[in-house]
Amino acid sequence: MLAQLVELEKEAQAALDAVADERALAGWYGAFLGRKGKITEAVKALGSLPREDRPAYGQRVNEAKRLLEAAHEARRAAIVQSAQDEALLADRVDVTLPGRLVLPGRLHPATRTLREICAVFADMGFQVYRSRHVENDEFNFGLLNMPPHHPARDMWSTFYTTRPGVILRTHTSPGQVHAMREYCPEPVRVVLPGMCYRYEQITARSEIMFNQVEGLAVGVGITMTDLKGTLVDFARRLFGVERKIRFRASYFPFTEPSAEVDMDCILCGGRGCRVCKNSGWLEILGCGMVHPVVLRNGGYDPAVFSGFAFGMGPERIAMLKYGIQDIRYFWGNDLRFLEQFG
Ligand code: 2NL
Prior knowledge:
By secondary structure, the chain is α+β, with helices and mostly antiparallel strands. It contains 11 helices and 9 strands.
């Protein structure tokens, strides 16, 4: 019996030495030390031995069991350690490598210009008012003094939706009506930035989506002098203190009188160059005194209140400022273009 036990002990030790992972280790435990394991069976065999053989065998088998349990625990620790070592090795980090360059994001040139424009007007006391891009016919045209079939509607080629009367705004002006109705009878001074949509041929000079910044001031005693003063200040704050502007008579259905505003050319200072087509002037925006019908639609009594309004395209302003030749670059998603604006 003792000889068998020595053999069994050797067998168990050899099997344990061959164990390489936790699964095999669990199998080994079951085979030798588990409830039906060989060592456990050998302990049980004690009871069937002749009485005089029991002390020697008992001592031996218990010692074997203790030794193998200790060996099992040592093996388990070794396996866990080597698995950990392997994982660490596989996941090794070379802390001496130089860091990866983090590319900082930046604003799109149109967004940047739009924000610069808004910031200038914010400094002059204009609140930024944001409004919906999906509008209805009434707000985009009707309330702006363009009833159905008014010929001025031809100035805006419109994106219609499959829902009757629901359209994409062709200008930010409907937002001005929302603003007037929200603040009336208090005076308002707001700028409205945001995307507008027109069903146009896409060319170097026109796009189907573009930003606009419109401004509106309504109050008691507001005159065209206030409009001119505000706009000359705007041009000087955005383009430099020496800027000059001029007004040319124009037409918009929602203003009366209406004007186009030119600024002396930032490239040649008015002497004439390629950018200003030798005129010395660059057109920067349109404006006028708010039409009495529009004032009334905003809730104001035109006998008491008056106001001015203006509108410009940030992309066009950016084109002048940075000498960009083609408006399609703005939404063309070409990084070679976008990366030039830091
Ligand atoms: C342009 C010209 C303009 C307005 C926008 C406006 C809005 C209301 C009442 C009166 Cl609610 N006027 N907006 C007025 C004149 C010109 O925009 O060339 N924009 C790019």
